[in-house]
Design goal:
The protein is an alpha+beta fold. The chain has one domain. The protein is 41% helix and 14% strand. α1 packs antiparallel against α2. It is elongated and about 50 Å long. The protein starts with 10 loop residues before the first helix and ends in a 15-residue tail after the last helix. The relative contact order is 0.16.
Length: 93
């Protein structure tokens, strides 16, 4: 896996994982009315996503980034520290 000096995964290596995540998020989007845009105050469509429906895709990305398997942990392993990740996804281009 290609890593840059600050530890993030290169765009070329992670691209298929991010595309899969984007597809899962788009499929799970449920219209939730409108919201006001922060900068200009325009009404824009708002969507909700049930986290349980996309959790598997985030888990696959997490496992890929931190070399963790998608398996259950034993009692001894559950006490070990694991990386914490907050994913912020912005698919606007």
């Amino acid at each position: 896996m290609a890593m840059n000096p600050i530890g993030s995964v290169s765009r070329e290596v992670a691209q298929p994982k991010v595309i899969a995540l984007e597809k899962a998020l788009n499929a799970a989007m449920i219209p939730a009315g409108t919201a006001k845009e922060a900068d200009f105050g325009r009404e824009v469509p708002a969507f909700e996503i049930d986290a349980a429906t996309v959790e598997h895709e985030f888990q696959k990305l997490y496992s890929y980034l931190f070399y963790f398997e998608n398996t259950a942990y034993s009692a001894e392993e559950i006490d070990r520290p694991v990386p914490t990740a907050i994913f912020i996804a912005n698919f606007e281009s």
